[in-house]
Design brief:
This protein is of the alpha+beta class. 45% of the residues lie in helices and 24% in strands.
Length: 344
């Protein structure tokens, strides 16, 4: 779909000027889809950043809890070691009494059992303290709730980094699509003039449909076709008159190029084709001498009538006329034999 047109028919533009912009509906759907993904990725990053901030604040409290657990474990270990020392002293005393026959074997076994229980309690307290010390050291980045790690700032940071990577990828895709969209612009390939628009604003154009007719801005030339006899009577830099019926204007022109074999060469098959002498096989290129006002009205394809002043092909006759002259016209006109019209 053509969005807008910046110029009107007849306007003069410079190379690179934006003439019109085209909107590709499929491309627009892709851009909208990627924009939604970018917004979703941005929201995900915001959510992760808030979660990370909250967990960092919680880690301060978690560290206090872990430090308290370590202190409690230290106190419990100290208490159980004292209980083990008391159990060791008690079994020594019962053993002495048993040798004296005062204590019974049952009392000794009971003391032995108490000693083993105290030793087991000390070992349990040591392991618990070791765990709490380790958790207190790791409490800067993660928290363990005695069953599993409920908070891990390193994993949160990794998830946040992955979210930023996804956002960067979607933004890159969006930028690429935007660049493609910016290229959906028709710019003037060179300085020139707009002759016609085949489409209007907000109209739909299919592939290979013509949109506008653009003419390069340079010297306007005219091609006239002559036969092999007529071409001998025209020379380079000769002046001619051009009549444009569509505009009812007469304009001067100068011959800039003469090609006698214009139609003899078959450009498709790269060989020469012979024609009759009456066929217009020679081409004459003329440069139209016009001003800016007239140039705005003239475009390629206009039919014109070219009036040449014929040159004299007989060199001897031309010299005699040049020396004798004519009472009605200057001597230099003696080499001309009248006029002839050519349509192109």
């Amino acid at each position: 779909m053509i969005i807008y047109i910046n110029y009107e028919v007849g306007a003069t533009v410079k190379a690179g000027d934006e003439i019109l912009r085209i909107n590709d509906l499929k491309l627009e759907r892709q851009i909208n889809s990627v924009k939604l993904k970018v917004e979703s990725a941005q929201k995900a990053i915001w959510h992760m950043k808030q979660k990370h901030k909250i967990e960092v604040e919680r880690m301060v409290l978690y560290r206090i809890v872990n430090r308290t657990d370590k202190n409690i474990s230290e106190a419990r270990l100290s208490s159980r070691r004292e209980a083990l020392s008391a159990a060791d002293a008690h079994i020594i005393r019962i053993a002495k009494l048993k040798k004296s026959g005062i204590a019974t074997t049952a009392q000794y076994e009971l003391a032995r059992k108490s000693q083993m229980q105290a030793a087991s309690a000390v070992r349990e307290a040591e392991l618990l303290l070791e765990k709490n010390v380790a958790m207190d050291a790791a409490a800067v980045r993660r928290h363990y709730n005695h069953k599993e790690f409920t908070t891990d700032l390193d994993m949160l940071a990794l998830d946040l980094e992955m979210a930023y990577s996804r956002l960067a990828m979607e933004v890159k895709n969006l930028e690429q699509l935007d660049r493609i969209k910016e290229q959906m612009v028709l710019r003037a390939p060179f300085d020139g003039r707009i002759l016609n628009f085949y489409q209007t604003a907000y109209s739909r154009a299919s592939r290979n449909d013509p949109i506008l007719l653009f003419e390069k801005e340079n010297d306007i030339s005219i091609t006239a076709y002559l036969n092999q006899k007529e071409i001998l009577e025209v020379g380079l830099h000769d002046r001619a008159k051009v009549f444009i019926p569509a505009l009812n204007k007469h304009l001067p022109a100068i011959v800039t190029k003469i090609d006698r074999s214009s139609l003899f060469l078959n450009k498709s098959n790269s060989h020469y084709t012979w024609h009759d002498n009456k066929d217009r096989t020679a081409a004459v290129i003329l440069s139209l001498q016009i001003t800016g006002d007239n140039a705005a009205q003239i475009h390629a394809g206009l039919p014109v009538v070219v009036i040449f002043d014929r040159r004299e092909t007989n060199d001897i006759w031309a010299r005699i006329k040049g020396m004798v002259g004519s009472p009605d016209q200057p001597a230099d006109v003696s080499i001309k034999r009248g006029a002839r019209d050519e349509e192109i």
